[in-house]
Amino acid sequence: MIDLQNVQIIGIRGDSEILRNLKVIYTTPQGTVPFDRAFGIDISILDEPLNIAKGKLTVAYINQAKQYEPRVKVKEVSFAIDSENGTITPKVVVESGS
Asked: The domain spanning residue 89 has which CATH number?
């Protein structure tokens, strides 16, 4: 199971506004924000086979950052597997946008 609530964001130092914004973007289910139903991550991705879900989630992270937090650029998305708990945690590496 991919754990969308514990996404790790790497490349932002400290407890910055950008880090908080990305956390909110990446942990909000799409369709739950009034007046902006496109905000957040489409959780129906989790119903896909694992490899497809990882690919779609990677694209979603990139597109959502580009749309809602243009001060950063997503460089890489990887997934850490915790075999003890059976969870997969997304890791998003970002850098300051130009």
From this structure: 3.10.450.40
**Which pTM does this prediction carry?**
0.91
What letter represents residue 7's amino acid? V
How many domains are contained in the chain?
1
d(CA 31, CA 39): 7
For residue 17, the enclosing domain spans 4-96
Length of the chain: 98
**Is residue 11 within 8 Å of 66, Cβ to Cβ?**
no
Q: Give residue 22's region: left, alpha or beta (phi > 0; psi -120 to 50).
A: alpha
CA-based R_g, the chain, Å: 13
* Element holding 83 (H helix, E strand): none
pLDDT exceeds 90 at position 96: no
Strand 72-82 to 87-96 pairing: antiparallel
Question: What is the amino acid identity at position 92?
Answer: V
